[in-house]
Amino acid sequence: MCVATDVRNTTMSAILFEKRGHQAWITLNRPEAKNTLNGEAFVGLADAWDEVRADDNIRVAVVTAAGEQDFCCGGDLGDVIPLWTGTREAATPLEERLKNDPLISDKVMLKGEPLYKPVISAINGRALGGGTELVQATDIRLAADHAQFGLPEPKLGIVPGAGSMVRLTRQLPWAHAMKILLGGAPVSAQEALAMGLVSEVLPIGELLARAEHYAEVVSAQAPLALQAIKRTALETHTQPWAEAFQFEMGQAAEVMMSKDAREGTKAFREKRTPDFKGQ
């Protein structure tokens, strides 16, 4: 297990941000409110992703939530909708940022500036609405066996517009995606695993240890290689084959010229652990 090197609250307490060596651990911290995203959480999570993106020492991020009932049940509509519609004035500088930055929601759901570093989600309970949308923005998805996933927005006369209408049909077979998108009953963790929405399902008591395992494994890899892999997967997802392979070759060539590539092959020959620098 990595030793924490930097533990702090990001924008107060709705989002906790912790650095453990080459890992960033982000925790949604409103269990009393089903870990819904209020103004503070929106801004804090957007800032956390920005820090993961900007800090070259961070190679992988893990996102989870406090408690054992809810991962995230979406936005705190009573808190954020009045701000966005102008029926309530911002009461704090954080709320002022939320009100005046139309891209905050995109940043939270990783829809805006891409994040090519791997992201692991440790889904400790219900992921509904924006919670399911946040899960879709992650790469390795570990779910507690009592977790649930759903997009109830159509029941409220709105749509899941934080990425799901685009992402879900690209990540799942059509029939599975539409079952979730059209506002049906939440699917269980076991159903989500069968659909391919999550990577693994395990007891809640094993969830964080499993996330730590994957974070250790991923953060030990060469960071430039990891980012090239994710960048290629994201950027070529809808490209024609020829264009996609051309992009892939460009990424491969760039990584092969890196100092890390030379270090990796040298360490293999010398039967030692490589010392990657991200260069």
From TrEMBL:
Lyase is among the record's keywords: yes
Segments for region (Disordered): 260-279
InterPro entries in alphabetical order: ClpP/crotonase-like_dom_sf, Enoyl-CoA_hydra/iso, Enoyl-CoA_hydra_C
EC number(s) recorded for this UniProt protein: 4.2.1.17
Pfam family, one: ECH_1
Any GO BP annotation: fatty acid beta-oxidation
Protein name per its UniProtKB record: Crotonase/enoyl-CoA hydratase family protein
